Queue: 3 jobs
Job 1
Amino acid sequence: MSEAGAKLTSQKVSFATTVPAAVSIGQIFLEFLIIGATSFGGVVPYLRGSLVTKRHWVDDKEFVEMLSISQSLPGLNATNMAILVGDKLRGALGSVAAILGICLPGGLLMYLVGIFYRAHGDHVWVTAGLKGVAAAAVGLILATVVQLSKKSLDQRFDFVFVVLTVLAVNRLHQSVPRTLIAVGLIAVLWHRPRKEQKESAAS
Amino acid sequence: MNQIPALVRVFAYLSLLTVGGGMAAFPEMKILTVDVHHWLTFPQLIHLYSVGQMAPGPNMMMIVSIGEWGGGLLGAVAVLIAFFGPTAMLAFVVARLWKRLQTWPWRTSMQQGLAPVSIGLLLAGCFTMAKGAIFGLETAAIAVAVLLILLQYKVNPALLVLGGAVLGLLSFAPK
């Protein structure tokens, strides 16, 4: 189905062009299960190592393109990537197998952690450790913000939109969707297609 | 009282807010799970989120713990489907349309425009969490240390979070 869909569009970048002969649903599930069980500290490098380097299920260019789609859409990078790669390999069923595989190990682990934490979360040693864990997590998110800014903000004016978003949520206590729509709309209009871009896009 | 319908509603809604990363939905998640539905307290939410950073796989798997607290095993499964179902279907449909939109100039505009907003949402989520997680010199020092190390060296972030646990024990455990 995915191949038919890709042929319809017949674009230069079509995900269906380099599909390896036959990847079974079981293989997809197993590969994503392994990624889901081993990807400590961020999924993307593990996805690349497994799908591009080890299995050759997607090439590097496709991987980057898929990642850019995943980042632009709501949803986590990890699960969006699973959907896109699964669809490329075996259509809708491939997507289901991939997302189940990547979610299962972490989900099971956090299910058990939740039960343990409910029983022992108020133990003095546990709360002491968790205070440090939470502080480290704040540092980790800040680092993500800095790295993303370096990578995807190309205009100085973009920082105005970053600040506006933070102020709307944290200071004016606007809901996230309202902020997303309001500031998002202004930012998209700011980046509206200009004449020269139109020409280069058409060529 | 059966919490499953409320869990499904809340997490399906939150899933659509995860633009740029799970943290983008954090301010709204705090309001809905802590203030509105009382499934857990704010410190508990922060702890579960932080511990979740050490788990492999997608980094918002702590939602499973909230589902389990609110509605047992069924609650956990319901939350998982509610949180990943809508965005999975959206990604599936949009990815297929994406190729057709390749020459549509507004596609680039939307990507460029949404990038700073999603970074702002991550930062807002981070500040919301910092209000509960940073209180005094030790926690501030741990956060800054993790930030600087990650920007300077290629270290696995999960190891640094684990290091945070050790420092937390050293700083806050009863002597």
Job 2
Amino acid sequence: MAQRPGPVLRISTPIRAFAQRFAFLMLLAGAIGLVVLGKIDTLLVERARVHVADAFTPILSALSEPLRTVESVVEELRDLGRLRAENDLLREQNERLLRWQTVARQLESENRELRELMNFKSGRVPNQVTARVIADSGGAFVRSVLVDAGARDGVEKGLAAVTGLGLVGRVIEVGNRSARILLVTDLNSRIPVVLASSGQRTVLAGDNSDRPRLLYLPVDLNIIAGERVVTSGHGGVFPPGLPVGMIARVGQGEVRVEPLIGWSELDIVRLIDFRQPVDELAGPPMLDLDPGR
Amino acid sequence: MNSGTWSRIDQLARKLAPFVTTVLLVVLSCLPISVSEMGSIAPAISLMAVFYWSIQRPELLPPIAVFAIGFIQDALSGEVLGLSPFVFLLVHAIVVGQRRFFLGKSFLLIWWGFTVVAAGAELILWILASLIALHLIDPEPILMQTVLTIALFPCISWLLVRVHRAFLTSADA
């Protein structure tokens, strides 16, 4: 401003400065208020968050598309370099898997016969929605992702999120066209699990690191690295037997689990409604976790 | 509509550049970019933009805009709502207060200033998040994020300098 300060300006400048400082303090207080409000009235804050997420969903979807293309091109170039080695590996793996397939077929038919013998009711096929990850928290305090399916696609709070490899997390917030999934690695994630070989029940607790911990394990329990960890089905959110991870490290009163999901390549997830009435006789629902689809 | 109206609209659009670029960077930082070596940690790109515009054009990024940017950041990333607005407002106030120190200085000095500010901001975030979670959060991810943020500052500020020159220096000096 080049003009000479007139009497109006001379008075208004300190008032303006005061107003600005006041606005700043109000906003700062507003931010703290929001944090406190989030603790007291979760629903209100959640709704605000969901609205913003919904508004940005089209932009995020549109932007993540070219990003994926670039990523796949990079990945393809990398693959070209190791084509021969990978071919050998795949051939070997294919042979092994074919043998496994025979075993699986035998087990499947045996299983069917046994179920028929027991007059076994299999769980209903659960509702599912396929969604794409469009935003990643990327922060250091939360482990959650935003997906591009919401209430209009039939997503509800509490659905389990899985990929072909196993459990990813569960839906905690639902907007109209977006939903937020709390990953199993988040600080607030607690999932009842069992160790597949020993049958020991425990709780998988996230702590924002890439490897969640197991809680409440007996001290004398012998745990081997590499043991599979699956959901126990307690609590009714997840069905029993959904793969979660493998024991990664056992040490100093702490057992860590390596999730089966590679967090960086999390792209498409399936949101599945497992919250059926608990029926003692019904086994795990027939879940087809074929990653090829 | 005469040319005066158009030029006023043009001026307004230009003046929105700091806010719009910062919001765009918020969106960018939330995109699921899979860099396997980094895990799921993303640098705090929006912090860089708030820092940059608070030095260069604080009048175009008033506290209310800073608050909105933090709000969007928290809403998209799933962070506790209110944390980022709080920290961004503090950064904005501190940087505006020390503006004379930064203006017209060499890039290295600004980078050094950003290092101090970013480290402080992440420390405050960590303390607040730990208070809210009622226990100490593993500091390793936040340390990673801080280092990444500081390391990437030159790239993002290069980008912001381009935006600054393209939209703001020619039309309204």
Job 3
Amino acid sequence: MAVSSSTQLGCGRDIDDVWANVDRPPTAHEQECPFCGPARASLQELERATADLRAADDVDPELQPGPLVVDRILEVARSEARRSRRLPLSKPVAGEVTADLTVSEQAVAAVVRRTGDALGGLQVRRCSVEVVEEPAPDPGTSTDISTEAARVPSDVRVSLRISIGPGVSIPLLSEEVRRAVVAVVEREVGMNVIGVDIVVEDVHGV
Amino acid sequence: METQDREARATPRAEPHPQHDVRADDTGTEPGTTVSADGGHEGPSGSAPFPGGLAEATVVGRAQDGDLEAFELIVRRYQGPVFRLAYRMLGDRGEAEDVVQDCLVLVWRKLPSLTDVQAFHRWVYQLATRRCLSVLRTRTRRATDATESDELEADLPVDASADPASLAQYNAQLRGLDTFLRRLPDEQRACWVLRELHDLTYPEIAFAMNLPVSTVRGRLARARQNLTKGMSAWR
């Protein structure tokens, strides 16, 4: 097949212009012109062939990758799973260098997303959790308290970027989300939520 | 190779792009769009919800947070379209599967750097298209043209029973479209497949191919011209 470099027809019009009009009735020029008429007919033929090809491709079982392809992709993703931060479950104790009980930020985010989804009217897109640090207690002041008794849940601040459904009241929803997040993180993770920042970044389903 | 000319071209990368207006730019000027007679060209893909009614941007945001379940939804949504794009570009199942795998693994690795979740759809197409063109360049360098045309012919499906799908396939074959599609220059074919089989807008194709919109328009016009010429000669 000769591949041509010009898209101008013999009458000087560009084939692009004929294409632009192909779904509309022919113009007076197109009815008369010995170049535009045939070009239009063959573009319409191309359009029909394209629709057929597309319909065939979309349902052709041969035009799907084998099932192993998805498995391999997911395997790579799991093996390269992004490590999220570990958050200490309790506040630092005087004299202790590292927290011995931690939870991953992703695990907290998963709990928060599930809770948000269950409320309805919103979709949690991003979720991050920050531990709010206090100055470490002075070792001198905690001498008479047993280490176990001194363990206090970490204070955390949860930041959400959400999308809301159409017609949802942002103030009401925010309050509901806040209460639910505080409750679920305390109950299921054991952390003390001191703040929930909510950014509504989109409206979905419109 | 893939990075050459990057500065000079239209919309080179996925990162910080205030491109929500892409579709709006497009509707007035794009010829021949079947869905946009009223100028309201709805995004084909990004708009269809995922299982559970989740918006694409939600699923993408969760995957950016490292949520593997969300990433799996993305993989299941895009594996078919990327495969069909690659198959129409490369004409080879094995190579098309490799493109699907490379492309979606790259999506996972690069997701954290995608700042505009609304750009996700065209970004996946960009990764996939670049991968296909790179495979084609490698192939050209190896210059295996002699065996290639045999393989391509062998790939043509021949069965045409009575069910509508294969009837459509049969009709398409009758008209010779897939044959002439294979013979188009690679970049023309890429533009045409992205536009006509995957509903990308002109600016989305420009983004995927790292070309100015005007060049995309020219390639599409040439592709249509070459396809109609081929098909007329076929009859």
